[in-house]
Amino acid sequence: MSAGINTYKIDLREIYFTLFEQFGFGQVAGQAPYDAWGSDEARAVLSETYRFAREVLGPLNSVGDREGCRVENGSVLTPTGFKDAWKKLYEQGFKTVSVSPEHGGQGAPMMLQVTVEELLSGSNSAFNMYPGLAFGAAEVIAECGTKEQQHQFVERMLNGTWGGTMCLTEPHAGSDVGAAKSTARRNGDGTYSIKGTKIFISGGDHDMADNVIHLVLARIDGAAPGTKGLSLFIVPKLRINADGSAGKANDVSVGSIEHKMGINGSATCVLNFGESDGCLGELVGTVEHVGMSQMFKMMNGARIAVGIQGVSLAAAAYYNALDYAKDRKQGSHFTKWKDPTAPRAAIIEHPDVRRMLLDMKAHVEGIRALIIKLAHHLDKARQLTGKDDEAATYHKGQVELLTPLVKSYGSDQAYRICSQAIQVYGGAGYIQDYPVEQYTRDSKIFSIYEGTNHIQAMDLVGRKLGQAGGMFFQQFMGDVGSFVEAHRENPVYGDAVKALASAQEALMSSAMMLFGWSQDGGKFPLIPLSANRFLNMMSEVAVGWLLLDAALIADKASAALSADHPDRAFYDGKKFSALFYARNVLPGVEQAARLIALEDTSPVDISDAAFGGV
């Protein structure tokens, strides 16, 4: 794969189907607060984003991977071309599609923004992390900051003048955020002196923006231990002058950047705050000791963004593998495998390659549908709040419930699918001449950052299932159940729908087991032992449901087309994605439920010594 050559490809027809036909973008757009938007506008944005992704970001993907970032004179320099791409990205408004016009955005539904993000991230995940983090930090200030802070920071962070980060992790405290040792001392003038070291800070420094605004968790002197004593501070890399411009250095230094397995174009920094006792910050908002709740607003958005990263690379890997399989000839057709004179067949003709490709296709389509469904809930909640608060609560609850699924299942499957793409290529996929090896390396981090997938699983089983007295989970199960009852006798999909029903029943039985264990202190270890498996089960039920829903929509649309219409093949693909998933994935939910019911505690029963070692 030569540097500077775009390898990113995606099927916009697939995105259009999910956005417009399955989730009814046109029924959400055109109504307040999305009055200015319609399907035509959305198509134009996606078409232009795809052009930008292929012409600007795609060619820089391998450049960023090969060059990486470097530190010179205490500052991070990004790979060749990144700075120019940053400027073009913001000039064309791709990062502010769904931002409120109040903050200089275009006010589109979130359903459109997540599809835009898929194209940007799929073409260059490492680059897109920089503006993504700035976007998330700006959202926190917009929601939690004072009017003055909103005016000072938000629009500049959203239009690319300034970057942004979130700073949680410390050398001694990874996921255990409550063990943070960074401190904040009141100065008497409303500012705080910040001191501490943060590690693994994505986009912690770069040369693309005039300033970088850090959101830093720190403990004010005398505050309580643990997460309850943490406060959130706005800490600019450069202090802000009275006229709003960037001023002198604020004693924030780059200790080093990490040399990683992937996303090499993204600077993952060690940041030192206040080494010379000259780092000043201001509290986000006016209330101390609420830093974690404020930071979670950014983290929840970041977790959804990780799911988007996952499907973006999985899709890119799939379409590259598909094109390679159509072009690469090796071996004879399986019906003539004993004939040494038979012509060589394209490897897409081999049954196992077709199995791998359909597996990849089904998962990519299902995970994308799950993400757009979550965004649909966000949009409906925004539209209905203050008009129909009961319906708005339902949509907000589904966002809460689906977020850990999107993050975890999207990221786990991304790594698996990218790895499977290498398998489709064979030995060629393992070398840098083709993009799938980079996709695989880049995608591994997704299951780790923004809260490891086990943290997501514990969030699901320990908090989300019980929210509102379990109502949100019951509503999710009710939505699946209503679909099952409406379609279980369908002549084409009846058996697949019944497989979904069996998986749903297995999921409910496991949920009841988890509830029982939570009431029995002696069985509490079974909850963390089973949480990941349960999250995966629930994700598969959700994806299986959405794939079948898509197939039924496609069948209806296909029936209205002429026999030679090119969309018939596209709609036929929806059918086989759904059937493959129902036949090959959903039965695993029942098996997973049986494994949970075994109540195996061997991982906690085994002694440390029995694990062995040298």
TrEMBL record:
Source superkingdom: Bacteria
Domain Acetyl-CoA dehydrogenase-like C-terminal: 476-605
Domain Acyl-CoA dehydrogenase/oxidase N-terminal: 39-160
Cofactors demanded by this protein: FAD
Boundaries of every Acyl-CoA oxidase/dehydrogenase middle domain copy: 166-273
Positions of the Acyl-CoA dehydrogenase/oxidase C-terminal domain: 291-460
Pfam families in the record: Acyl-CoA_dh_1, Acyl-CoA_dh_C, Acyl-CoA_dh_M, Acyl-CoA_dh_N
Single GO cellular component term: plasma membrane
Keyword terms, alphabetized: FAD, Flavoprotein, Oxidoreductase
GO molecular function: acyl-CoA dehydrogenase activity; flavin adenine dinucleotide binding
Family that this chain belongs to: Belongs to the acyl-CoA dehydrogenase family.
UniProt-recorded name of the protein: Acyl-CoA dehydrogenase
Naturally occurring in which organism (per UniProt): Myxococcus stipitatus (strain DSM 14675 / JCM 12634 / Mx s8)
Upper classification of the organism: Bacteria, Pseudomonadati, Myxococcota, Myxococcia, Myxococcales
